[in-house]
Amino acid sequence: MSKLPADCLNEIFEYFEDKKEIIISTPSLKPPLFNYITFIKYLSIDEINESIKNLFKNQEPTSRSVVEQEIFKMIMRQASLKELKFYYHINHFRNSTFSSYPGAIDCLKNLSTFSCYSDIYPEFFYQLSQICHNIQSLGVQFRSDISNGLADLISVQQNLKYLTIHQSYKCLSYIVPLLTKHSTTLIRLQINGTGNYESLLFISNFINLRELILSFDYEYVFEDFRTLQDVTFPRLRVLKFPNKCPNHEYLIKFLENNGKNLEEFDIDITDNSLNLAIAKFCPNLKSLFTTFLDDEVDTLKTILHRCQGLEIIKVWCGVWLREIYLEEIELFDVVARHSPRNFCELRLCYPYNVQFDITSVELETFFQSWKDRTPRKSLSFMIVGYILEVKEEIMKVIDQYIKLGVIDKFKIIKDYEEN
């Protein structure tokens, strides 16, 4: 719960009217049935600020600031937060000492999830490091400045499990030394960035990693992945490369060492040799996102035969640049005839400006084939793309098979972040 119900603002309205600091025309409101503030577990500073801007758009900025401070004071006095997002300007709270409001210690002491910019004023990080020692999930968006207090906050955590780093400039040289203490507790590491000239070898220190997500915009960043190709992560279950990917030779060697335990593998760009390596080294996959070109239907069959625990597959469709992906009609036929018995979700992913373009007859043929499977699980059918239009006759077929119980769920996803 991040947005305050209107009833929660009654007390603040009355305060402002008494002080004559802000003129607010308020209808006659009954006292709230519940103390909504006490139910707040998640707080986003920027979302609250944006809501106040919209609510008091005709007021002066100084007046909006007063409202904001009073809301945060009320939250500090009455709530007990589990998650806090602090993505805001470096100087925004410098004079209001957000974490030193009355009640802040009780409000923040149980914080388990925290996300922030790297350049928040140091006093905030210092104050938070005195209160919060049990943050399990930390996300840091690194900017050109890094506050001195951030190191203190990271160092005092006792059980850091999940770390997300959004890179800007060379941030790893700053944060890696701080993670030594957390080498055995960290189980999920995600690094997003446009560039990284530093070694990825530090990842080998996290021997208990279960999830590793590396999202870089340029392939050259992955040249250092060769330092990881011989490292074994015995507990690794999820491996994702949402954008560019490492050299396939390095990655195949990595899968040879770590593929047996993988349950989820996502890679945006692949080739036939890598897909065959997936079939060979990753027999226990439950979810796979990969690419098959139009002449690689046999490789898809090989994966479906060898990965008998596979439940979800996500593939690219259509034509993109010079790549011609496996046609949907061939994909449908192979999935219906060769997918494992527990298979239950198919996602068709379309590149920018490529449309979902199959006939109702082709789709119905696939659904009927799925209906005739023995044994059969209901199928979730997803279409993912930037600009998608599904024709009325297609929707009629989908609705028909939903009613028959053949299709469990259908969804059009227009945001790749959901994929």
Key descriptive features of the protein:
globular; about 425 residues; 13 helices; two-stranded antiparallel sheet
Structure description:
Strand 4 (137-141), helix 6 and strand 5 (162-166) form a beta-alpha-beta unit. The strands form 2 sheets. A 14-stranded parallel β-sheet has the order 1-2-3-4-5-6-7-8-9-10-11-14-15-16. It has a two-stranded antiparallel sheet with strand order 12-13. It is an alpha/beta fold and 419 residues long. The chain is globular. Mean pLDDT is 86; it is low at 15-29. The protein has a domain at 1-79. The chain is built from 13 helices and 16 strands. Helix 12 (360-371) runs parallel beside helix 13 (392-403).
Biggest sheet: strand arrangement: 1-2-3-4-5-6-7-8-9-10-11-14-15-16
Number of helices: 13
Major sheet description: 14 strands, parallel
Overall average residue pLDDT: 86
How far do the termini sit from each other? 24 Å
How does the overall form come out from the CA principal axes? globular
Give Rg in angstroms.
Answer: 26 Å
Helix content: 25-40%
As residue ranges, the low-confidence spans are: 15-29
Q: How large a portion of the residues is in β-strands, by DSSP E?
A: 15-25%
Query: How do the SSEs run, as a string of H and E?
Result: HEHHEHEHEHEHEEEHEHEHEEEHEHEHE
Structural class, by secondary structure, is: alpha/beta
Beta-strand segment tally: 16
